[in-house]
Amino acid sequence: MAAIELDGIVRRFGDTTAVADVSLATERNEFLVLLGPSGCGKTTLLRMIAGLLPPSDGRILVDGRDVTPLPPRERDLAMVFQNYALYPHLSVERNLGFGLSVRRTGREEIRRRVDEVAELLDLGHLLRRRPKELSGGQRQRVALGRAMVRDPRAFLMDEPLSNLDTKLRASTRSQLISLHRKLDTTFVYVTHDQIDAMTMATKVAVLNHGRIEQFGAPVEIYDEPASAFVAGFMGAPPMNLLPAELSTDHDDRLVVRGPGVAVSLPHRGGTDPGARLVLLGVRPEHLVPVPADHTGPALRGRVDIVENLGNEEIAECQIGNQRVSIRGSRPIGLAPGDATTLAVRPEHVHLFARQSGRRLVWEPEQAPALVP
User: Fold this and answer.
1) Is 294 helix (H, G, I), strand (E, B) or coil?
2) pLDDT by residue (tens digit) across 170-220?
3) Domains (ranges, CATH) in the chain?
């Protein structure tokens, strides 16, 4: 049950920096998700933790011990690969026990551990089969079980659900959540899927171009994204980001204006930020269609598309020259071609500096009623 700390980790491939000065620390028994798009450095970072790739700079500590110079076998960390990496000529039972056999563990001890893990993962009826006779979900459980029989200090997982279909992915995700609770050990999990991160993680590190954009609890990252990149990466659909200009009016309110955008934000403190270029961020679920004479914070435009998801609808609207998504319970009350006014509560408005993309912090006053 290891605590893992990364201290200034850098990895270069020639002139390319794949991981740039990453520092973070997990608590014991945490479920850490390394989240980001393809090419952001998350798998490279995981491979360095495992010892499969040396860092160009920085240290990796496990329970306070510097393991940077140690080979993988001396770190006591178990890796679960994206492609399962099972031995096709061995049965499930022998795949599960292979790592223990290499370590010359006694036959009875191997059988005991394999039986324990097979029961926990519901693999007992599959022990005589070979990998080619298994479904994708069953192979994934075997790959996980092979790591579990070692009783490692932490599990490292490289997109283990990416080869599964949607239904199987959801059920396997639930099994991993349950397994983490039962084992009470540390998981470090790499994925590009935000649903994996939101549902499984206790902490999420969002990576972009080899750097950590934000590190925190899933709800914190969703509700208070630290940058426009995080805001645009999290959510389905992601947060709407509209270029605008921020200033103050004669009543000392923050005013955000742009094509189709007129948002006035009562705020505490009365600080005048001066006119500056910003990105106005609003989650699709926080936009609500209102009458055209609505006087509160609003976006005005025209509906392009309405998608029926069964219990919900997603509408795509044109606001100025920007596309904006709205998500709500069906029927959402919009049709293609409609002129629309979309209201948002001030506390649901996010502001980002347009040049740097970093979050601008402001404190809303008591929010007024949304519907006039």
Assistant:
1) coil
2) 888 888 888 888 888 899 999 999 999 999 999 999 999 999 999 999 999
3) 4-232 (3.40.50.300), 238-360 (2.40.50.140)
